[in-house]
Design a protein that fits this description.
The structure is a single chain. The protein contains 9 helices and 4 strands; from the N terminus they run αααααββααααββ. 63% of the residues lie in helices and 9% in strands. Strand 3 and strand 4 form a beta hairpin. The chain starts with a helix and ends with a strand. The strands form 2 sheets. The protein has a two-stranded antiparallel ribbon with strand order 1-2. A two-stranded antiparallel sheet has the order 3-4. By secondary structure, it is mostly helical. It folds into 2 domains: 205 residues, no CATH class; 29 residues, no CATH class.
């Protein structure tokens, strides 16, 4: 629904991809935990290979929010997503990121291993996550009046998954291996917060650009379209 409001909006398109990744990996996580045997658990474990794309999606959303005029270009997207593609390929075709399969009280789980490659993956998440939080916090500080509330929901929606996943998946397992994987739960909570900011507070401009062109395309005057906060959102000549 968010995407259909304005398919030309880069932020709407990025959010659509992000929501798909959240939904897909959450389903894979559920089916892995409840698998009837280790073979099916391994299948769903491999099927969730797109999880490394969370950090670049967070980063792209933060960049677009901070500077709506200079959207992330396709070449920048490829560079930002390059580590994710490398990790995803390694995750599918090798076993260097996890060790033996274990069955705990909450279901099946593959234990992570300590090696240079897993250290690289951890640093990748930390760097991308910290940069995303920094940019979205900077965006929140810049806002005034009504935009503060909207920006707060966006900041919560991006920060909750990043911080909670790092704690639940990276720190807590070091002390207690019986903790269930909570990453999918936190990402779903963050997605709900972002959806609220978009739908209820109209955080993302949802005026369809094609509708604007259709209404004012034949006008000989230069028209400026503003929102309720008197911010310019479009110009038609």
């Amino acid at each position: 629904m968010i995407y259909s409001n304005d398919p030309t909006n880069r932020l709407n398109r990025i959010f659509l991809v992000y929501a798909f990744v959240v939904a897909y990996t959450s389903f894979c996580q559920y089916f892995k935990l409840t698998a009837i045997n280790g073979t099916w658990a391994l299948f769903w474990h491999k099927a969730s290979f797109i999880w490394p794309f969370y950090p670049p999606l967070y980063l792209m959303i933060a960049i677009i929010l901070l500077d709506k005029k200079n959207y992330v270009k396709i070449e920048y997207i490829l560079i930002i997503c390059l580590p994710a593609m490398l990790i995803a390929g390694t995750y599918i075709f090798t076993n260097v990121l996890y060790s033996e399969l274990g069955h705990y009280w909450y279901g099946w789980r593959f234990n992570s291993v300590n090696n240079p490659y897993s250290f690289f993956v951890g640093m990748y998440f930390i760097i991308y996550g910290a940069l995303s939080i920094f940019l979205i916090t900077k965006f929140y500080i810049r806002q005034k009046n009504k935009m503060k509330t909207r920006a707060l929901y966006a900041m919560i929606g991006l920060s909750i998954p990043i911080i909670c996943v790092l704690i639940a998946e990276g720190i807590l397992p070091l002390f207690n291996n019986q903790i269930p994987p909570l990453g999918s739960l936190f990402t779903c909570i963050g997605t709900i917060s972002l959806s609220i900011s978009i739908l209820k507070y109209k955080f993302i401009i949802s005026v369809h650009s094609k509708t604007i062109d259709k209404l004012f395309g034949d006008s000989k005057d230069f028209l400026i379209i503003i929102n309720q906060d008197h911010e310019i959102i479009s110009g038609v000549k």
